[in-house]
Amino acid sequence: MPTSFLEIVELPDGRIVLRRADEEEALVTLEFSADAKGFLQGQHIEIAKAMFNVGVQMAGRLAEGGDVGMDEDPRVLH
Fold it and tell me: Does the residue 13 lie in any domain?
């Protein structure tokens, strides 16, 4: 992926996207349910920022050929 500035944007429909600052197309999209937003007491934007931050860090490690702790076995995601 070419180097460019990334931005986190909350869209009018409530989705939160990570995109290149000079493009409209989303690289990653997060959508929290009403229940999740209630549970997070309005802090869903901070949670989204943290999720994107960790994802970008892991992508950087992968790009550098580093190990991010992934096994060969299938993983349960929950």
Answer: yes
Dihedral sign of CA atoms 14, 19, 25, 26 in order: negative
Prediction pTM value: 0.73
Give pLDDT tens digits for 48-73: 999 999 998 998 888 888 765 656 66
Which domain, by its residues, includes 58? 6-63
CB 44 within 8 A of CB 37: yes
Q: Tokens for 32?
A: 């929290």
Matching residue, tokens 């096994």: 71
CB of 41 within 8 A of CB of 34? no
